[in-house]
Amino acid sequence: MSQSNTYEEFIKGIWKENPVFVQVLGMCPMLAVTNSAINAIAMGLATFFVLLGSSTLVSLFKNFIPKQVRISCYIIIIATFVTVADYTLLALIPEVHKELGAFVPLIVVNCMILGRQEAFASKHGVGLAMADAVGTSTGFLFALFVLGSVREILGSGTLFGVLLFGPHFEPWIIMLLPPGGFIMLGLILLFFNWLKEKKDSIVSTQLSMNNQIG
């Protein structure tokens, strides 16, 4: 396994194949818990822990798991790490755990996590599986943090509970409600699609110029 392959598997999940902004996965927690930055980070870190742990175990035991029961085994492995994450949040930050509610246990059925086990961890070595898990979960954490921060700033005028604006600021209450999550996510997706089209346009222009010169 080369370092370049490991780096490529890591970086693709953050930008090129971001689970939220590109693949549009994990939308349920993405919209439900991102009304504040701290909630977004807590959910992102819990997902990071679960994805990294489950990908490592699935990759380690891939040759011992019968194909007929592989999905059931993946879910059991994922549920084990979700339980650890759930009780850890409850013990360390009970207020945030209460805010997140049922969405931490629901990580078990997150299609992003189960999809990485089926599509990648079960087919590659431990090193690549861990790189893929770290990259994908970092991309997911980044997406949660971006949406959570923007919604908290506009909806409450704070970031991590710290007041950012003066007393005359009028909070955009809609940003703390589900419609605000949909609106902001749509705008962010629009921005990422614009960046992708701009990049593709630049690449196309460069190729055309190279062909003309050649």
Describe this structure in words.
The protein is mainly α. The chain has one domain. 69% of the residues lie in helices and 2% in strands. It is built from eight helices and two strands; from the N terminus they run H-H-H-H-H-H-H-E-E-H. The protein has a two-stranded antiparallel sheet with strand order 1-2. A hairpin with a 2-residue loop joins strand 1 and strand 2. It is flat and about 60 Å long. The mean pLDDT is 87. Belongs to the NqrDE/RnfAE family. One of its GO terms (cellular component) is endomembrane system. The complex is composed of six subunits: RnfA, RnfB, RnfC, RnfD, RnfE and RnfG. It holds the Pfam family Rnf-Nqr.
Summary, kept brief:
The chain has 214 residues and is mostly helical. It has helices at 3-14, 27-32, 37-60, 70-92, 94-100, 111-119, 126-156, 178-213, and strands at 158-159, 162-163. The protein has one domain.
Write the layout of secondary structure elements.
Elements: H1 3-14, H2 27-32, H3 37-60, H4 70-92, H5 94-100, H6 111-119, H7 126-156, E1 158-159, E2 162-163, H8 178-213
Helix pairs in contact: 1-7, 3-4, 3-5, 3-7, 4-5, 4-6
Number of helices: 8
Counting helices, strands and paired strands, the structural category is mainly alpha
Query: Secondary-structure element sequence?
Result: HHHHHHHEEH
Mean pLDDT, to the nearest integer, reads 87
Shape: flat
Structural domain tally:
1
Largest sheet: 2 strands, antiparallel
Q: Helix amount, in percent? A: 55-70%
Kindly report the spatial arrangement of strands forming the biggest sheet: 1-2
